[in-house]
Amino acid sequence: MSNGNKIVLSHGSGGKRSRDLIRNLFFKYFGNEILSQGSDSAVFETPAANLAFTTDSFVVDPLFFPGGDIGKLAICGTVNDLAVSGAVPKYLSVGFIIEEGLEISVLESVVISMAETAKQTGVEIVTGDTKVVNKGKCDKLFINTTGIGELDPKFKKISSGETIQAGDKILVNGFVADHGIAVMSVRNELKVQADVLSDCAPLNKLIAEVLQVSENVRFMRDATRGGLATVLAEIVQHKSFGIHIDEEKIPVRASVRGMCEFFGFDPLYVANEGKVVLIVPADDAEEVLEIMQKNELGKEAQIIGEVVADHPGKVVMQTQIGGKRIIDMLVGDQLPRIC
Predict the structure, then answer these.
(1) pTM for the complete prediction?
(2) C-alpha pair distances (Å), 334 with each of 14, 98, 261, 282
(3) Which of 67, 113, 293, 339 is surrounded by the most beta carbons within 10 Å?
(4) Number of domains the chain contains
(5) Which burial class, exposed, middle or buried, applies to 4 when counting CB atoms under 10 A from its CB (0-12, 13-18, 19+)?
């Protein structure tokens, strides 16, 4: 097979092949006025006095999974990190580390997915980088995305959660654990198929709708690696308050719950890629819930618990069988390489 349809080391050399890959693939699908300048740095204006800045790397295996792929994941992951900070995502950079021998058609499919997702979110990919490594030095394709968003000063404290107080309500926008189970279901080692799609989705528009009805949101975080449980455990760590949640209120699909029980996973710790945990004042909770449920990405939203003065530093769950359980952080990952 010729080198014309596979990535070769010279695609990362900085020479003609590199230029052709950038112009004929990345510029073709990511093209915008800023990117087309082709400079070493993207130059743009922003009126915001406050900016949010984040970066993340994506190494998911396999590259394509039910409901998404590494490209969609890379855009959603960074857009969501900005959005849960209260920012409006604006610009992304993209860095590709490509293994020699990857089929260019595979890379093109990923790039198309990224372009479509970026368009859906309203962000622009304005700069990037490509490196090609020897076969065996990475697993097909790794992607890094860095994002910049405009942050209204009134939302500046959301990411720190410093205004959280007892009585606040905790919400999640839908079913948890879908992403981790969807990815694992297509891995060879499980030898099982599950009719589950990843929840991979951009949350910026849903979050913008929430912030329009409540400027008092105390905290937001997307429940990715470590799942819902880890987010909640991080919130109360070294704090003077605790959290109480109700297992019956936490949305988990029956099929996902069944898979988790079969393999010994706890759905509270399984990664999501389209779930936001919100903490809002009790007076705002029902209105926020109503707004979320009107959005396609929040139809199954629920109020799952509240912040309490009792058991400071601990998350306690009321179980379905009537007992109580401490929710803490895991030492390691239940499911590796899922984002």
Answers:
(1) 0.91
(2) 40, 27, 13, 33
(3) 339
(4) 2
(5) exposed
pLDDT in tens, 67-88: 999 999 999 999 999 999 999 9
Q: Are 314 and 248 in contact (CB under 8 A)?
A: no
Nearest to 251, CA basis, from 321, 204, 315, 199:
199
**Domain ends where: 101, 131, 155?**
155
Q: Please check whether residue 327 is in contact with residue 315, taking contact to mean a CB–CB distance below 8 angstroms.
A: yes
Strand partners, 219: 279
- CATH number, domain of 222, equals 3.90.650.10
Residue span of the structural domain in which 226 resides: 169-327
Of 338, 55, 307, 42, the residue nearest 187 (C-alpha):
338
DSSP assignment, residue 282?
Answer: H
Residue 334: inside a domain, yes or no?
A: no
Average pLDDT taken over every residue of the chain: 92
280 shares a domain with 175: yes
CA 336 to chain centre: 16
Co-location of 66 and 192 in the same domain: no
